[in-house]
Amino acid sequence: MNVVFDWTVWFAQMCFLLAMGCATVRLILGPRAQDRVLALDTMYVNGMLSMLMLGIRSSTTIYFDIALLIALFGFVGSVAASRFLLRGEVIEP
Amino acid sequence: MTISDLSPWFTVPAAVLLVAGALLTLVGSLGLLRLQSFYARMHSPSMGSTLGTACTLAASMLVASGLDGRPVVHEVLISLLLALTSPMTSIVLMQAARARSQPH
Fold first, then answer.
1. How far, in Å, are A3, A35, A56, B14, B60 from residue A62 at the CA level?
2. What value of ipTM does the predicted structure carry?
3. What whole-number distance in Å separates Cα of residue A50 and Cα of residue A56?
4. Looking at beta carbons, which residues of chain B come within 8 Å of A60?
5. CATH, residue A13
6. Which pTM value belongs to this model?
C-alpha cells in the first residue's frame, strides 16, 4: 500500500517539475514584461509545492518553514515587480 | 514512525488529494504556456495557486498528522497566506498590464 503512496508522491513531484518547466519556457518566450512576471509568480508557487513534496517524502517539518518563506517572499517579489511595471518605481515617496 | 508504516486511513485520502492537486497545478501551468493573449494567460495559473495548493496542503496536513499522532494544522498558514496574497498580485499585475498596453 505504501509503495503506491511513494509513487504518488513521486508523480506529484514530477508534475510540479513539469509545471515549473512550462513556467520557465513562458519566462524565456514571454513577449512582454508582464508575461515574465506572471511566469515568475507561477514558478514560485510550483517551487513551494515541490518543497512540500520533499517534506512529505523525508517526513521532517523543516521543509514547511522553507515553503512558508518562499510563499512570503515570492509574494513580495511579484508585487514589487508589478509595481515597478505600473509606476516605474517600487516605493513611492 | 516513518512514512512506510502510516495506516491507509491517512495515505489513501492523501494520495487522492496529491494526484488532484498535482494535475490541477500542471494544467494551470500548461495553460500559461499554451494560451494566446496575456489576458487569457492571466486566468490559468490561479487554478494551481488556489485549488491545487489547497489540495496539496491538505494532503501534507494529513501525512503530518498521521506521523505525529496528533492533529497538525500549521499548513493552514500557507493556505491562508496564498489565499490573501494571490488576488492582490493579480490585481496589481493586471493594472500594470492595462497601463502598459494603452497608447501614450
1. 24, 32, 11, 20, 13
2. 0.87
3. 10
4. none
5. 1.10.287.3510
6. 0.88
Q: Which of A2, A16, A79 sits opposite B25 (nearest CB)?
A: A16
Domain that holds residue A9: 2-87
B97 CA to chain A: closest CA distance, Å?
6
C-alpha closest to that of A63 among A49, A77, A73, A45: A49
Number of compact structural domains in chain A: 1
In a domain, B31, yes or no: yes
Which of the four pLDDT bands, split at 50, 70 and 90, describes residue A27?
very high
Q: Is A92 within the bounds of a domain?
A: no
| Chain A residues inside the 8 Å CB shell of B11 | 1-2, 4-5
Q: Closest chain B residue to A58 measured between Cα atoms?
A: B3
Residue-level pLDDT at A50: 92
Residue B4 lies in a domain: no
For residue A20, which residues of chain B lie inside 8 Å, CB to CB? Answer: 29
| A93 belongs to a structural domain | no
Taking the CA of residue A10 and the nearest CA in chain B, the distance in Å comes to 10
* Residue in A5, A8, A67 nearest the CB of B78: A67
Total number of domains constituting chain B: 1
How many Cβ atoms are within 10 Å of A59's Cβ, its own excluded? Answer: 17
CA dist A86 and A45 (Å) reads 23
